[in-house]
Design brief:
6-stranded mixed beta sheet, 12% strand, alpha/beta, 549 residues
Length: 549
């Protein structure tokens, strides 16, 4: 039996029923295992994680960070919640007041006011607001009159019934209550802190944080954790989870560093007690170790200063690259504005519309290049990879005497073929060594993510389909696996180019392969994995270019 611990929000029995569809999804994908939901609250979590036999945990971000720090759990996926504004992978806090309270226009106006809130560990309904108050020198614990309620809706009703002056709730609660008819659209008003994100699709007062995390415990075997992670990432948005839990699936695990910062700022969870006399006593008790660590830090700082001085030329070059990038982005923006003005002036003439179309195409090409540059700057090991793949793919197309439009498509698809990697956590993409099986399974989802991104852009080339299929092989190997359409010629060309450039590129865990080994490698897969005509054309290009990438 595989136990999945789920944090209780309302009632224990309701929690098990709410997440029952998740069990059905897991058992459908892993039929030889029996999964069971184990509801828990914070008070019993430690005992369950130590000897309660939990293999997996589904909990809010504050619970996850606490358990990660103290029990070594590791996240597999982040929950995607359904909302009136669409799927959301982040949440925040809301400070809600009645609309007719003209005396309450800023968070600072809540001094000595009655606050309706839920638990002290509720991120959206308490901790996120406390952090923002602390940043404006407002001692919330001393200057607020707090009233605790069981649920967020109870807190809102307290405000509406004049039993409280303001309610602290998580994002989405107000919209859900309006949708259900429990609150009038004009009954409430939200007070915002200056840190609240612009453009967040729901009412929000604080900065945003990642949604609930699904994590494996130390008890869970890696092979089972990998299969569970893949199942979570493949749950459709239309599953029964949407109706029962308001969840439309899971995505790759997000970065929970902001939650660590929040708990650290409040000295809560794994950071409880790390202030004042506790810190001083710790320093006295471990003075020798502190001295050693301090010495090592000083040595490291000295080495870093020396390295920075030695590489000041590289720093200046990097600064110049950043300036050039800024100039490039401003140039693209200016040319886009010029193009829009040109379209408006010349839209009446057929000849001028032809010119307009050409300029639109040119602007799209530049936009694709700008996106590709952004992706490559995120990952130092990917730097130049997409550009090299694009060049080799277009040269193969030329060698095969393809039409110019297909060659253009190959070049642009090469520039963005790994755009889906932007959704892969940086701790995976920047790791200087081979990936674990679980990490590789997450990376293998990047063609599908890239397809979704490029499908949202209206382009005159089938770039999205090329990106989706460039890791598929003729013999059925490669990925994604659940696609039964033919692999287009463009995707077959891009696939060979991607493999060749990868072998020509240095990685920390292996050297660059020579041109002879590369040709032997792709020739071995000729007619099985790779299109024979594409391999022949690629070999001709490589022999003509030597080892230039």
């Amino acid at each position: 039996m595989v136990k999945v611990g789920v944090a209780v929000i309302d009632e224990r029995d309701k929690t098990a029923k709410t997440w029952a569809p998740l069990v059905r999804e897991l058992e459908r994908a892993i039929p030889e295992k029996n999964f069971v939901i184990v509801p828990f609250d914070y008070a019993e979590a430690d005992a369950l994680l130590k000897d309660g036999g939990l293999s997996f945990i589904l909990a809010g971000p504050t619970y996850y960070v606490d358990f990660e720090r103290r029990h070594g759990i590791s996240r597999l996926a982040t929950l995607v919640r359904s909302s009136t504004a669409g799927p959301l992978t982040s949440l925040g806090g809301v400070v809600a007041v009645r609309s007719d309270r003209k005396d309450l226009t800023r968070p600072e106006d809540l001094k000595k006011k009655r606050i309706a809130a839920t638990g002290e560990l509720a991120l959206g309904g308490w901790l996120s607001q406390l952090r923002e108050f602390a940043l404006i020198d407002f001692a919330a614990g001393e200057q607020l009159v707090v009233q605790r309620y069981n649920t967020y809706s109870d807190a809102i009703f307290a405000v509406l019934n004049d039993k409280a002056d303001a309610a602290f709730v998580r994002t989405g609660i107000i919209e859900d209550m309006i949708k259900d008819g429990r609150a009038a659209p004009s009954a409430l008003r939200v007070l915002r802190f200056s840190t609240a994100p612009i453009g967040f699709p729901l009412e929000i007062s604080t900065r945003s944080y990642p949604e609930w995390a699904f994590a494996k415990t130390l008890r869970a075997p890696d092979d089972l954790a990998k299969r569970v992670a893949l199942t979570l990432l493949s749950i459709p948005a239309t599953s029964a989870l949407k109706e029962s839990a308001g969840v439309v699936g899971f995505t790759v695990p997000l970065d929970y560093a902001p939650v660590h910062e929040l708990l650290r700022s409040q000295s809560m969870g794994p950071y409880a007690g790390l202030h004042g006399d506790d810190v001083r006593n710790m320093l006295v008790d471990h003075a020798a170790w502190v001295a050693l660590v301090t010495l090592l830090v000083l040595v490291l700082i000295s080495a870093l200063f020396y390295q920075a001085w030695s590489n000041r030329g590289l720093v200046e070059t990097h600064a110049q690259m950043l300036r050039l990038r800024g100039d490039f982005e401003r140039t693209v923006a200016q040319r886009t504005r010029d193009l829009e003005a040109e379209i408006e002036r010349r839209k009446q003439s057929d000849l001028e519309r032809s010119i307009e179309s050409a300029k639109v195409k040119e602007s799209l090409v530049k936009t694709v290049k700008a996106v590709a540059l952004t992706v490559e700057m995120r990952d130092p090991y990917m730097s130049g990879h997409q550009q090299s793949v694009a060049q080799l793919a277009s040269q193969i197309g030329i060698e095969m005497h393809l039409a110019q439009d297909l060659i253009d498509a190959l070049y642009l698809a090469g520039l963005v073929h790994d755009i889906g990697m932007i959704y892969v956590p940086s701790e995976i993409t920047n790791r200087p060594g081979p990936l674990s099986e679980i990490e590789f399974e997450i990376v293998k989802d990047h063609p599908r993510i890239g397809h979704e991104i490029m499908s949202s852009v209206d382009l005159p080339w089938p770039i999205a389909d090329i990106v989706l299929n460039h890791h598929r092989r003729l013999d059925g190997s490669g990925y994604p696996k659940d696609i039964d359409t033919d692999i287009s010629l463009e995707a077959r060309i891009l696939g060979v180019a991607d493999v060749v450039v990868a072998m020509m590129s240095h990685r920390p865990y292996r050297p660059v392969l020579g041109i002879d080994k590369i040709i032997a490698e792709i020739s071995q897969g000729r007619g099985t994995k790779f299109d024979p005509e594409v391999v022949d054309a690629c070999v001709k290009v490589l022999n003509a270019r030597g080892d230039a990438v």
